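Quick entry between incubations.
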Amino acid sequence: EAQVTQNPRYLITVTGKKLTVTCSQNMNHEYMSWYRQDPGLGLRQIYYSMNVEVTDKGDVPEGYKVSRKEKRNFPLILESPSPNQTSLYFCASSLLLARTDTQYFGPGTRLTVL
Amino acid sequence: AQSVTQLGSHVSVSEGALVLLRCNYSSSVPPYLFWYVQYPNQGLQLLLKYTSAATLVKGINGFEAEFKKSETSFHLTKPSAHMSDAAEYFCAVRSSMGSQGNLIFGKGTKLSVKP
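Done. Structure below.
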């Protein structure tokens, strides 16, 4: 089954404790992206990657890091989480053949930083 | 820069009534537009997309949207609401700047369906 998976689905942590949220897709997609969703703000892009070893900042990259060492994986790293990073996070992937290509989303990771 | 505006953060309809969720876009180039749905505690799922092939686009679950260039709109409609349609709906436009992959989302409209 074609899918985007994220782990963990729920995470409660404390300020300053480094964490990684994993994202994996099995569709051989070149493009992957991380979004955060906050009430009243919709989805905002954090980072994206157009292929292995190619990453770039989205609209709200501060406090986040990413890496793309393999095509299927795109982990999101919070080196020193803060309470304002409490949010719902989504990973997404798509082909890059055309701008009409559908972006597929993972189930989300709900992060709480105390 | 491209953007989308969704009018109304909450819309409530009765079961069987027309659903109309509004989306206006801003784009200096022909846009590619998408509607996504998010059911409670789930990820986003594509409802439909406009790819310039036809102005009236039919999607899943009986939804459709019409692209109107003169009004810069891409409103989502469904003739008869069902309880299972209760969800949050997001309109999005594909960025023409830099990465071809970036989606720019509206802030979402939460649809409630009353029995």
